[in-house]
Amino acid sequence: MQAEKLRLAGELDGALKIISDYLNDHFENVPALVMAGNILADAKRMGLAHAIFRLCTKLRPESAMCWSNLGFCYQEGSDDKEG
Fold first, then answer.
1. pTM to 2 decimal places
2. Does residue 48 form part of some domain?
3. Over the chain (83 residues), what is each successive 10-residue block's mean pLDDT?
4. Is residue 83 part of a domain?
């Protein structure tokens, strides 16, 4: 998928545009939602990534990948500082 190629190349805005356009017509496509969440996480937009991964866990509760990605958002978004 072109969005993944752009994501891996660090072209996050272009990747997000492509996946957003796709999701306008396929809004419950879990692989596309995961891609969008990954792009947002790469862009350090954890709040939006969290919302998308949360939706993924509701659409596909048996998916370990969806739960793992959601957990990553919690970990990255944590305000806890190790001292």
1. 0.88
2. yes
3. 93 97 96 97 94 97 96 79 45
4. no
Whether residue 51 is contained in a domain is answered as yes
Neighbours of 33 (CB within 10 A): 22
Cα 61 to Cα 17: distance, rounded to the nearest angstrom: 27
**How far apart are alpha carbons 2 and 65 in whole angstroms?**
21
Q: What is the dihedral of CA 40, 43, 46, 48, to 10 degrees?
A: -40
Q: What is the pLDDT at residue 1? A: 81
Task: Tell the residue number behind the tokens 């306008």, with chain if given.
Answer: 24
Structural domain that includes position 27: 2-77
The structural domain count of the chain equals: 1
The CATH code of the domain that includes 58 is 1.25.40.10
